[in-house]
Amino acid sequence: MTKEVNKNSNDRKNTSNEKEKEVNNTLSSIESTVDTKLTTGRQIYPFSTVLSNGKEKISMQNFSPFKDNLIAREESYDIPKKTLVAIPCYNEEKTIGSIVLKAKRYADSVVVIDDGSTDKTAQVAEYAGATVMQHGGNRGYGTAIQSCFNYAREIDADVMTILDGDGQHDADQLYGVMKPVIENNVDISIGSRFLDENSNNVPSYRRFGIWVLTRFTNAGSKEAYHKVTDGQSGFRAYSKEAIQKILPKDTQMGVSAEILMQARKQNLMFAEVPISVSYEGDTSTEGAVGHGFGVLVSIFKYMEVEHSLLFFGLPGFILFLLGMFFGVQTYIAYEANGYLTISLTLMTITLLMLGTLSGMTGLILHAVINAGRRV
């Protein structure tokens, strides 16, 4: 009997030690994210000093009282609106802690959308003071953004600002991004990497890729305030109207372009503000080529549905004109030689058929989509 009691006591002790070790590892992870320092009042203290509260060791039980001290700052922001900072992330335990702590300075609430992380992202974010929503697995960046909008609607936020959880965006610039929305000037404020060229060292391949994707995103913009310089920026603020009207459907990286195209259709006002971005280390979980291709596919899918007549009708009209051109060439060759040229004849038939099919597809889709919207 005594042996059994001792065995149970040892089991509880081992479990307690394992839990304490896990907590300490998590706190160490938070510590490493703030570059070992946080500003508290007018003096800068090492992060470990703030956590330790003198000689008392921080544990799961006494961490909470000191959590608020981590975001104490000389500055304070009196924002007369209900603000939310939403942070989608995947395996960002090394950076999410400091981002949450900084975000709490500017927002009434901070939510972290954990898209199936396999590390301690959710734990670090929760200990730092964020509300954490966890997906059942890695469902994609677009799905995480959908969760951001759903949560903002659920809590009836007046302003939602989204930034990445990988440390690429500077959380200290949150107020600068949300300010145009707070002042009721615009519905969407976009942090652009290209308004202040001196503040960013964007790699040339990224710069070119973003330029191409932004050109596609801006295609069809009639108003100057709907054209942007950085259509792929994930650092954005949204007004209450934008939160209610924008319903992202893309589950991957194309969601950034989809949101702007939806907003443009709703005639929401845009503005851009300069931001700085860090590309130190590997901050991307998806290759640049794959990212770019995925965004283009998403843009085409959106145009296919929202602008079906233009998407199918224009190419169909061009193909039909080319078919007519080759048809004339076929007739001229027949008059000159007395027989049909097989290559020209096949080219004419193919182009005319493709043009007709494309045009009919555009007309049918346009009619079906409009009928569905009227129901």
Q: How does the SSE layout of this entry go?
A:
Elements lengths: L1 H32 L3 E4 L2 E4 H6 L10 H5 L15 E7 L6 H8 L5 E6 L6 H7 L3 E4 L6 H14 L4 E4 L11 H9 L5 E5 L11 H15 L17 E4 H6 L9 H11 L4 E5 L13 H19 L1 H30 L4 H33 L1
Parallel strand pairs: 3-4, 3-6, 4-5, 7-9
Antiparallel strand pairs: 1-2, 6-8, 7-8
- Quantity of strands, as a count: 9
Number of H/I helices: 13
The count of domains is 3
Superfamily at the CATH H level of the largest domain?
Answer: Spore Coat Polysaccharide Biosynthesis Protein SpsA, Chain A
Question: What is the CA-CA span between the terminal residues?
Answer: 74 Å
Give a description of the structure.
Helix 8 (204-218) packs parallel to helix 10, helix 8 runs parallel beside helix 11 (288-306) and helix 10 (255-265) runs parallel beside helix 11. The strands form 2 sheets. The chain has a 7-stranded mixed beta sheet, sandwiched between helices. Strand 3 (83-89), helix 4 and strand 4 form a beta-alpha-beta unit. The protein has 13 helices and 9 strands. The protein has helices at 2-33, 47-52, 63-67, 96-103, 121-127, 141-154, 174-182, 204-218, 240-245, 255-265, 288-306, 308-337, 342-374, and strands at residues 37-40, 43-46, 83-89, 109-114, 131-134, 159-162, 188-192, 236-239, 270-274. It has 3 domains: 2-67; 76-304, Spore Coat Polysaccharide Biosynthesis Protein SpsA, Chain A, CATH 3.90.550; 308-374. It is α/β, with parallel strands linked by helices. The N and C termini lie far apart (74 Å). The radius of gyration is 28 Å and the shape is elongated.
